[in-house]
Sequence to fold (780 residues):
Amino acid sequence: MQSFTFHNPTKIIFGENTIGKLAEETPKYGKKALLVSGKGAIKKNGVYDQVIAALRQAGTEFAEFSGVQANPVLSHTRAGIELAKKENVDMVIAAGGGSVLDEAKAICAGASAENDVWDFYTGKAEPQSALPLLTVLTVAATGSEMNGGTVITNEETHEKYGWGHPLLFPKVSILDPSTTITLGAEYTAYAAVDAATHLMESYFTCEDTDTLIQDRYVEGLIRTIVDVTETMIRTPDDYQARAVFMWAATLAWNNIAPSGVGHWCTPNHLIGHSMSALFGTPHGASLSIALSGWLVWYSGESGRNGAKLAQFGKRVFDINEPVTVRAAELAIEALRGWFHRIHSPTKPADIGVDDAGLLQVAENVEFCNPHWGMPQYNKDLVASILKLCR
Amino acid sequence: MQSFTFHNPTKIIFGENTIGKLAEETPKYGKKALLVSGKGAIKKNGVYDQVIAALRQAGTEFAEFSGVQANPVLSHTRAGIELAKKENVDMVIAAGGGSVLDEAKAICAGASAENDVWDFYTGKAEPQSALPLLTVLTVAATGSEMNGGTVITNEETHEKYGWGHPLLFPKVSILDPSTTITLGAEYTAYAAVDAATHLMESYFTCEDTDTLIQDRYVEGLIRTIVDVTETMIRTPDDYQARAVFMWAATLAWNNIAPSGVGHWCTPNHLIGHSMSALFGTPHGASLSIALSGWLVWYSGESGRNGAKLAQFGKRVFDINEPVTVRAAELAIEALRGWFHRIHSPTKPADIGVDDAGLLQVAENVEFCNPHWGMPQYNKDLVASILKLCR
Fold:
């Protein structure tokens, strides 16, 4: 175990019919809110009406800002910041999935700052304050509801960057699993891949080996995610499966998994973000592709990596194979098998990206990499990793 | 999964040589602190000097209140409250193990109240405010460093009661595993039993069955605790084993494990607390005794309980036994085997309590039970459970 600081002050309110509890929370943070949402899904599934009813009950005034897209973009974020400033709001309420939450975080930081919000993502500025954020989550996947991270795409420069700050932890996040049952099979699968990948990044890349707690935490959650994903796809209105997945996705990216593991990095997100920035690939789809190649490359890197993959296969997929190299191969096959069963792509061709596109991804990674700080992943390495995807 | 609220705002600073970071934290909470400690262990292991140096560096004034005993008592707590009021402190700093932290929480609540502090433990009063608490933990076991719970014994009435409140979460807890290497084999074992029992209470008593996440979380942590306890006993200065155990003990009782499992209760703590209140039994020792009998009674209660025990045995102790009843028996034997290996007692006679004493425990449980709210555990049931301990 390595030294760490863990501080996650977000209050989680979890369960069916909990959105009304927003009325008890907003008065703690002021009188007027900016309600940020996406392209209208919350108006169809009743979430919008519940949020509005809670705000009226609490006597919280609000302005509305909708239209956040999947892979949220900088131009729309800037418009939200302008509106938050103009309306002089005290807080931001995000109602939607991870993209809505991420853009809302950017609005919270940008509305309290003089500088352009993109400066936070490029490291040119640090926030001194941020508007308080409350969220009503309707898609479980990104973990944004219980962390200080946010990802925005600068659509002019094709840069998709993540950035995090303690000021951006939501004060309160309301998680009602019944709001997620309208999510279709395709995006349910991508959500599961996203949550599982969050757990795998620190699990596989961490520098420390005394990670007994963190390993079992990750393995238990991934096993649980694998257990419930096919149920969600087969029976979309299975509340229990949705509830288990929703809490698993939150626990997957709320800083517990990497605490104490020392240095770690996110190569699959690095590659996946470039794929999304260039081709609009859904985030989860880009991750199952990246992982399919990256794990093969990783397993060949050192004996230790193979052993970690063998442990993963044994504990997550019950693979009983004494030979480490073979056990590692079987672990990758088992994970790919899961991707295939839930119809998440595993190679660039699955999403229509040919060899030329693959090179574009590798070039974009090298272009964006100064931001990520993983210099090892240069253009050539990324291209060779992407060629291992199958 | 059942509905729940999870909110744990404690900031954890974990690692070797982290006590000095107290200097960055105290100025956030005021100018003067009450430094609460035990019977002098921190003066021997250097923790006291590090805390004082940090307070001097921060310019934080302080008064001192030492002498907290294991199983902290009400009279001493009241004296601490009096001193906190007289010295008009802004915050409390607890430096020590779980007992020191628990008494410090009582001082935080009592120093801000007009009523007697025991009224909080008996449910006669609710705190409106509490002094902020910062802790420097030197014994990993109770989880008090990351929750709002506190246990105090009223030595006049032989009542040992737990009580919890959101106001009592420490603001900051500093966990330096190197401070725990001076803990002897006996109390290291009791600490491990305590942490493991925290996890087992909600695991075995919860009403819900859709607890995939919580089950794997608990099983993973108990397995880890079992893995490192004998190492700590054999090689007390093994920093990594101490570090893994310290973080495991915190994660064992910080509200993650029971979140979403619905109603649950703490029968082993109920029985164990009475044993400690009457005979001064170390907390962990009382729990390994209680569990040895309670699990046998529990496994016979319903088919579901036997299946849960079989699952426990399979996932924690690798027991591959297809017959549920037999698998449950083997799980209990495996757990008892662990208690025996680390020399934690499993029957009342091990701590010199005879049949008459056993009945006293059963009577004390019935006397205290209105506080705990587990009416099922009347005198007769507790006596029969204690007779199953062997």
In short: The longest helix of chain A spans residues 212-234. The interface with chain B takes residues 1-16, 18, 177, 210, 212-213, 216-217, 219-221, 223-224, 227-228, 240, 243-244, 247-248, 251, 256, 259-260 of chain A (CB under 8 Å). The two ends of chain A are 35 Å apart (CA to CA).
